[in-house]
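Before surveying the methods themselves, let us examine one representative protein, written as a sequence plus integers encoding its fold.
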Amino acid sequence: MKWPALIWRLLSDPFKRTIRSKLIVIMICIAVIPIIVVTWVATGNTRRSLEQEVIQSNLSRIGWSGEAIDEKFVQLNNLIYTILISPTLSEYTSRDEGTDVPGQFTIQRNIINTITSVYYSGNNNLMEIELYVKDKNKLFTINDMRNDIQSPVTEPPVWRDLVMQQSDFIIRDSPEETPNFNFVRSMNRFENKEKIGSVRLEVKWKMMDGALDLLNSEPGASVYIVDSAGKLMYQLNEGPVPTAGDAKLAAHGSGFVHTPDYYIFYSHLEPWGLSLIKVLPVSYINQSTAMTQKYGMIVGLISALAAALLAALLAYTVSRPIIRLARSMSGLNLLKVEDAHYPNRQDEIGLLEMRFHAMSGRIREHIRNEYTINLEKQTAQLKALQAQINPHFLQNTLQLIGSMSFSKKPSDIYSIIQSLSDMFRYVIREPGEMATIGMELKHLNNYMNIQRQRFTGKLTFETDIVPEWESCLIPKLSLQPLIENAFMHGFDRKKGPWCLKVRLVPFEDGIMIHVEDNGVGISAARLEEVRQRLADQLDPLWNSGKSIGLYNVAARIRLHFGEEYGISMNSIPEGGTRVTIFIPVVRTGD
């Protein structure tokens, strides 16, 4: 008994404390309950009315469609009769084939001409005409590809079907996998009605589409034609095809059958042994009535909202300022500067509003100051990175220039001085955050010009970068630190020639820049430590160390392009090291 009592107390306590809750519930019930009753009654009436309308309209349409299809078959029948009443055909069937061979040939050609004339004067849906004369054992065939006379070894299948069924005509699907049907009529002797041949028309079922479209009025419905045995012969569109046990159709005439899932409308085409059927899912009417129910629910919801608004107007007049304050708090944007709001009220609520807006203003000011300080710090750190150059490299370069003054030509000395000057100019000029790959390569070539002079005959350096990629942007001073690492860690204990290579390889999401050396490499443990450090960057701008190193380059790439870009490293002890930079394709102005 504890749980029911607890639930009842939770539901009833708000009504005990305030009459406003009771007022809201009563007004909503007064507005919603009549709407629910009216909607339920209207839905039932609408469904019955819509059902009757759908049934009557489809019964009319299926009658019209049946008449149109009957007219199509009459047209085909007339084409056959045009051939059968031809004087040339009558003369041919009554003439003895053993005499006057040239005359027989002339008559056969005349029959071919007659059939050809009928074929081309028929309609675009006529695919083939075939005339078979039993006594002569001749088969005349006319279509777009053939125009000939044959003496078949066996009787045509359609002729055997006519004889077996003792029928004057048959309509059946084409044996080939084509959307066509055969309309076959026997040729009878006038005196005793003996079958002496047959005429077959191969026709596209598409000929009936115009008549069947009269029934294609509701979404989800299917229209098709079946033969007297219930076999599906042609279907206009994709849709449900109930099995023979789903509905029991009348033997003659037209009508409809209502099953739990479908409305099945039918019309028997009496002269031709076919039936026209339309299947309409019951869900169509249910969906239509659901719209009425939906609109009724919308009206009910609007009424409930109107009642709630009226109750709020009557019951919450005093608490309106508190609601306004709550909305201000929920919509507060601490990153957006908003106009100060000073309420006119002099009571406790006005004081609360004034204090709240003052507090939000102080929070915005604090966030803005913190953001400005961090931004200035980041900018100063990045500029400090760009302004650095390895002091040992500078000392070695100056010593190189001093030694060259005793043994080299002034032009060689000037080349080194010019390279050093260009390096200093590059690292201190503004703006200093991004540069093109071409600019980075130029800076790298100045660096390597000095190093080649220091290590003459020992160092080789090559680049493999297509000029079209040189306009892509990269964080400034990204390549030289990687080359510097190669000298400091890869060539320090390397015997023999030193080789450095910079290659650019485009890939699906951007470009890769490989910096490769043939130095001493690093151990597997040290490589794993470096990879872990590259993947685990806490400060995106600054890392330990007094120069721009590997981790600084990786951090700046992620800072500019996102976490999916950066640096990877591969190395083989005594086999060299390859550092790969992953960056997107970004050009100036992007």
